Amino acid sequence: MYPHFTSCVNSVLLMASTLLLLTACQEDNSQSASHAMPPAAVSVLPVTKTNVPITIELPATLAGNKEVEIRARVSGIVESRNFEEGQKVTEGQSLFTLDLEPFQLELETAQAKLHAAQAAVTQTKRERDRFETLTNERSVSKRDFDNAASSYDIALANLESAKVALNEAKLNLNYAQVKAPVSGIIGRELVSEGSYVSGPEVLLTQLTDTNTMRVRFGFSEREQLKMRQDVETGSLTLPENNEFDAQIVLQDGSIYPQTGKVNFSDVRVNRYTGTSELQAKVANLHSQLRPGQFVRVRLKGAVRHNVVLLPQRAVLDNGTGKFVYIATKNEQGMLVALPAPVNVGEWVRINSDNYWIIRDGLTEEQSVIVEGMARIFFPGMPVQVAQQGEK
Q: What are the Multidrug resistance protein MdtA-like beta-barrel domain coordinates in residue numbering (predicted)?
């Protein structure tokens, strides 16, 4: 039994020695391979700091400059519709006509009452003047003169009332020809011809002034706080009174030719979205823009100060943050690639290329690798500069 046990132990020791020998050989081979790996060819860009105009891009919706509900101010039967749905109408154009006969009769009645009131004034004035003369001659009593004078004053008041009634009748006749208060695009009719409308309670149609469009969008309160902090530290400059230039990007990616201005910023923050509403106005002379469109708005006018610009491809992400590779010499004087974490800001587009704004993490004496990162297999890998990169 003991000789058998001794034989087993020897076999185990022999196998362990063999494994150790193989492992050592493999480590030597890998080290040799790594030392034998040629330096990766890369392009570098020297770190320089500059001031960079930035663009803020946000989703937005369009609305007309004026969105008007068309209602009749008087009641009556709709006699005709005077527009084509969806077409442009001009200010003062009649959109609906109510049955005008009742309003014309009211106007004629008011005119007749005005004539009667004018005649009454003429008559009572003659009576007052006659009684005044007789009173001076002591032919009539003072009481008779006072009555004549009061009748004249009442006739004057009735005349003024008749004038008001005539103006009201004229106004109602005008209101019965429901007119467009502004120029714009008319919607569909909501009340058909022959229907009775009881006045302002009934919506007839809607009209939108599209000569100027309002661009409405939300801006994150968190981002606004960051921007205010950057303004206080001097690292960011905003346009005066926050009047950003507003450029519209349409759904197909094309740029709308007209540029607007931000003219409103709501002081309230939406408790559901955490954003506050901003608005810009932009000209729409050819009606290319329509209310309700979803677009993107680019806000221009802000400037970042003392930052580094790097091509987007040079900035990598390891899952915990952004970093770049720096070409630097190690203790042996060999040029190697070492990672450097960076704090990025906005994207900037220059000559159809995208760049990251690097707010901190780099110093001006460093060289950032901008080409050849795929050849860097591990931090500290030897590199050689093939060419100097360009921005």
A: 212-300
